[in-house]
């Protein structure tokens, strides 16, 4: 996004909203490159309309997905505007949206994302507490707010397992399918409890603002699913990216808020670690890796460490690949 494009987009959006020609001022534009999929720009926006004077730090998010009724844009917008959610969770305020341009203009939260902090047990607990608040909301409260999107996929777990199966089918090594069959078998006796899942709950998507309040961003993957998907995903991602184990304090904070026992979380961790590692098998089997941003491949080693921890099986090819990147496997 260039400054001129940003200007055009914002003018078009505000004019559409107000129905009159609008002059605006934009300064201090920064493009955020830490996100993975979308274009994010932060800047100061000011304009005057009649007696109204708007002058704020804002974030413009342009979604790369196709605009349709269940797009990531629509999903995130609906969640950010949900009054049921806002009662329990801090999210950025939406100033404007434009569904033709696929953009949202929202409040810039002043603070730092959790990955930038030197995290202590206190903050891991807080990170868990916030997820507890999200999961605690009775999904019935969302019915009115979420009428125009579909957050509920029937049989989410089965669909998830089927997708994994379709992936693993293509691998030359049959051992992966055997492990997946074993895992699938274990899930047959699991009792599910569905809640609103954030869907991508990791340190980069939560900001600690200047008042020490945690504000949750990036709701594009929100869905109604078993509560352990969010928990396991968060733990697997936290370890793969940052090499830290924050399970105990995070779950401590989470349970303090929900007051509910967490059962069979390891099974979900096994599932998500299976997913996170097998996504990378094509690399190990020789596909082009030049598009990989983080060339250190340490994150791949960690995904493998978790995989071995939960599935109890080592793979020579994976270890040879890691070795070629200068990395050695140790059991964790
Ligand atoms: N409202 C906001 N206030 C402050 N920073 C934001 C805001 N929205 C996004 N960011 C910054 O941009 C990054 C990427 O935004 P995010 O919504 O997570 O998009 P992506 O889907 O690309 O990850 C965040 O990790 C955060 O650093
Ligand atoms: Mg994000």
Essential attributes:
332 residues, Phosphorylase Kinase, domain 1, 2 domains, alpha+beta, Aminoglycoside 3'-phosphotransferase, Chain: A, domain 2, 17% strand, single chain, binds magnesium ion, binds adenosine-5'-diphosphate, three-stranded antiparallel sheet, five-stranded antiparallel sheet
Task: Give a short summary of the structure.
With 332 residues, the chain is an alpha+beta fold. The protein has twelve helices and ten strands.
Describe the structure.
- InterPro entries: Aminoglycoside_PTrfase (IPR002575), Kinase-like_dom_sf (IPR011009).
- This is Phosphotransferase.
- Pfam families: APH.
- Residues 47-255 form the Aminoglycoside phosphotransferase domain.
- It comes from Heyndrickxia oleronia.
- The protein is an alpha+beta fold.
- It has two domains: 3-108, Phosphorylase Kinase, domain 1, CATH 3.30.200; 113-324, Aminoglycoside phosphotransferase (APH), C-terminal lobe (Aminoglycoside 3'-phosphotransferase, Chain: A, domain 2, Alpha-Beta Complex), CATH 3.90.1200.10.
- It is 42% helix and 17% strand.
- It has helices at residues 3-18, 72-80, 83-86, 121-136, 156-168, 175-187, 227-242, 247-258, 265-278, 281-284, 298-311, 316-324, and strands at 25-32, 39-49, 52-62, 94-98, 103-107, 111-113, 194-197, 206-209, 214-216, 223-226.
- The strands form three sheets. The protein has a five-stranded antiparallel beta sheet. A three-stranded antiparallel beta sheet has the order 6-8-9, covered by helices on one side.
- Strand 4 and strand 5 (103-107) form a beta hairpin.
- Helix 4 (121-136) packs parallel to helix 8 (247-258).
- The relative contact order is 0.11.
- The mean pLDDT is 94.
- Bound molecules: adenosine-5'-diphosphate (ADP) and magnesium ion.
- Adenosine-5'-diphosphate binds at residues 32, 34-38, 40, 59, 61, 92, 106-109, 113, 204-205, 207, 217-218, 220.
